[in-house]
Write a structure and sequence with these properties.
The strands form 3 sheets. The chain has a 7-stranded mixed beta sheet with strand order 7-6-8-9-10-13-14, with helices on both faces. Strands 2-1-3-4-5 form a 5-stranded parallel beta sheet, with helices on both faces. It contains 12 helices and 14 strands. The chain is an alpha/beta fold and about 375 residues long. Helix 1 crosses helix 2, helix 3 packs parallel to helix 4 and helix 8 runs parallel beside helix 9. It is about 45% helix and about 15% strand. It starts with a helix and ends with a strand.
C-alpha cells in the first residue's frame, strides 16, 4: 500500500485545518481525534471526506460547497457537549455528522432538540438512539445489541460453551450487554463470568484473573480502542488462548495495528459489507474514489464514514437550495435511499433505524477476512 491509513488521516486532518473559502454548507462533527479510538475515527473521516471531496469537485450541492468543522473531544462526553454547543450556537452548522461514542451522543441530545439540529450517522450502535425514536438523530449503522447477540450465537454454533464477557462499565457496555444476554438466552447458556471494566482505565490485573479462573473458551470483549487492545494483550500474556470477539466500534485497521502480534484470530463484528468484496457496488464506488487519492485499501471504519456521508449528501440534494435545519429534518423524515448494492436506508417520523446488516470478520495477516 503506497500510503497507510494512518498517514493519510494525518494529512487529511492537516488539510482540513485550512479554512474553506468557498464553503457555504457547514456540517459539524465532535469525535475523538486524540484519545483511545482516534485511529478508528480518523479512518471514518477518510471515508467521509471521499464523498465530500467528490461532491465539492463537481460543484457542490445546488452550487454550494460543503465544509465539515471537526472538533476533538478525546471521547469525553463533557467535551462532546461543549464542542456541540460551539458547533450549533457559535458556528451555526446546518447539521452534525458521525459524532462518536454512546455516552457522548446521548449527552448532546438536549442540544439537538433545543435547536432542531439533525445528527446523521452517529458512529455508535446504541439502542437508546433507536428506541424510543430520537427525533433529531438519523441512524445509519445497525445496533450493538444485534451485534452482541449474533456474536454469542456464532460462538455457540462453533461448539464453544464457556463464554466470558468483559463489559465496559458505561452506557455503551450496558447496552451491548443486553444484546449479549439475548444471545446467551437463545443459546441456552450463561456467561462464564461478566467482568466490568472502567471505560478509559480498565484494571487488567483484576479482569484477566477472572477470565482465566473461569477457564473461558471465548471472550466477548465489549469496549473501545486501546481499552480492548491492551486487555487482549494482557490476556495473552497470562497464557490464555481464548477466542476473542469484539464489536464493530473496533472495526478499523488502526485497531489491528494496535493489537500487533495479538491480533491473529480476533473476530470483529461488522455492520457493512466486507471491504474486499470488490464486486459489491458500494465497495467498487468507495475503492475507486480512494484509489484516485492514492489509497489502495479500504477498512470497515472508512466504509462507515463513507456511507453515512452519502446519506447526508443525498438528503442535502433532496432538500434543495439554501437548506435550513428544519427543511433538512423534513427531508430526512420522508427518506428512502439505496446507498449501494441493495443496502437501503428508510426514515419516517416514527422510525430512524439504520441499515439492517450484521456480519463477522476474523483478523488474519494484519487485515479483516471473511
Amino acid at each position: 500500500m503506497k500510503k497507510t491509513l494512518t498517514s493519510c488521516a494525518a494529512a487529511l486532518l492537516f488539510a482540513l485545518a485550512a479554512p474553506g473559502a468557498a464553503a457555504q454548507i457547514l456540517i459539524g462533527q465532535s469525535a475523538d481525534l486524540s484519545g483511545p479510538v482516534a485511529a478508528s475515527v480518523k479512518e471514518t473521516i477518510l471515508g467521509s471526506q471521499l464523498v465530500i471531496d467528490q461532491v465539492n469537485a463537481q460543484g457542490g450541492i445546488n452550487g454550494e460547497q460543503i465544509e465539515v468543522i471537526r472538533m476533538d473531544d478525546g471521547l469525553d462526553a463533557k467535551r462532546s457537549l461543549e464542542n456541540t454547543r460551539v458547533l450549533i450556537e457559535d458556528r451555526k452548522v446546518l447539521a452534525l455528522l458521525l459524532n462518536r461514542g454512546t455516552p457522548n451522543t446521548l449527552a448532546v441530545i438536549p442540544l439537538l432538540d433545543k435547536h432542531g439540529v439533525p445528527l446523521v450517522g452517529p458512529s455508535t450502535g446504541a439502542m437508546a438512539l433507536h428506541k424510543p425514536v430520537q427525533k433529531n438523530i438519523f441512524n445509519v449503522r445497525s445496533t450493538y445489541q444485534r451485534e452482541a447477540e449474533k456474536a454469542v450465537q456464532h460462538l455457540q454454533t462453533t461448539g464453544i460453551q464457556r463464554i466470558a464477557v468483559v463489559q465496559a462499565d458505561d452506557s455503551f457496555g450496558k447496552d451491548a450487554m443486553e444484546g449479549a444476554s439475548k444471545g446467551f438466552e437463545k443459546a441456552n447458556l450463561k456467561p462464564a463470568v461478566v467482568a466490568l471494566a472502567d471505560r478509559s482505565k480498565p484494571d487488567y490485573a483484576a479482569i484477566v484473573p477472572q477470565l482465566t479462573k473461569a477457564n473461558a473458551q471465548a471472550v466477548l470483549w465489549i469496549g473501545s480502542g486501546t481499552a480492548v487492545t491492551d486487555g487482549i494483550k494482557a490476556l495473552r500474556a497470562a497464557g490464555s488462548a481464548a477466542q476473542i470477539i469484539t464489536l464493530s466500534n473496533n472495526a478499523a485497521s488502526g485497531f489491528i495495528k494496535e493489537l500487533g502480534s495479538a491480533s491473529a484470530g480476533v473476530i470483529v463484528t461488522q455492520v457493512l459489507p466486507y471491504e474486499r468484496a470488490f464486486g459489491h457496488p458500494l465497495i467498487k464506488e468507495a475503492l475507486a474514489l480512494a484509489k484516485a487519492k492514492g489509497q489502495n485499501e479500504l477498512s470497515p471504519a472508512l466504509l462507515e464514514g463513507f456511507v453515512a456521508t452519502k446519506v447526508m449528501v443525498e438528503a442535502l440534494r433532496r432538500t434543495g437550495p439554501k437548506p435550513t435545519r428544519a427543511k433538512l429534518i423534513a427531508t430526512l423524515n420522508s427518506f428512502q435511499y439505496d446507498v449501494g448494492g441493495g443496502l437501503d436506508i428508510s426514515y419516517s417520523p416514527t422510525d430512524h433505524t439504520g441499515i439492517d446488516y450484521v456480519d463477522l470478520s476474523i483478523v488474519s495477516d494484519g487485515r479483516f477476512k471473511r
